[in-house]
């Protein structure tokens, strides 16, 4: 009987250890995902600010010349 109790105790102890390991891995994964989301949000914020700036510049380009602004006619600086 005492041997059976010891066996049950060891089984429960093993299950608890496995759950603790699983919990630690999940916490690490959650932190990694949280960091990734924060970086993506920063990138998105920057891209939105750049897009707003471009939209603000479009009317300036159209007002400065007689031809309407055509992005296809613009040559990127690296050419």
Which structural class is indicated by helix and strand composition?
A: mainly alpha
Number of helices: 1
Main pleated-sheet profile: none
CA(first)-CA(last) distance: 85 Å
Compute the CA-based radius of gyration.
30 Å
- Give me the count of strands: 0
Q: Which word captures the global form?
A: rod-shaped
What ranges have pLDDT less than 50 throughout 5 or more consecutive residues?
Answer: none
- Kindly report the average pLDDT value: 87
What string, H for helix and E for strand, traces the elements in order? H
- DSSP strand content: under 5%
Helix content: over 70%
Q: Can you describe this structure?
A:
With 79 residues, the chain is mainly α. The chain is 80% helix and 0% strand. It contains 1 helix and no strands. The longest helix is centred in the middle third of the chain and has 63 residues. The protein is rod-shaped and about 95 Å long. The chain starts with a helix and ends in a 15-residue tail after the last helix. The mean pLDDT is 87.
Write the layout of secondary structure elements.
Blueprint: H1 2-64
């Amino acid at each position: 009987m005492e041997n059976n109790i010891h066996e049950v105790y060891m089984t429960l102890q093993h299950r608890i250890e496995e759950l603790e390991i699983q919990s630690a891995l999940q916490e690490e994964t959650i932190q990694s995902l949280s960091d990734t989301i924060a970086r993506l949000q920063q990138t998105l914020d920057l891209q939105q600010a750049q897009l707003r700036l471009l939209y603000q510049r479009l009317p300036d380009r159209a007002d400065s010349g007689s031809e309407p602004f055509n992005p296809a006619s613009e040559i990127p600086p690296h050419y």
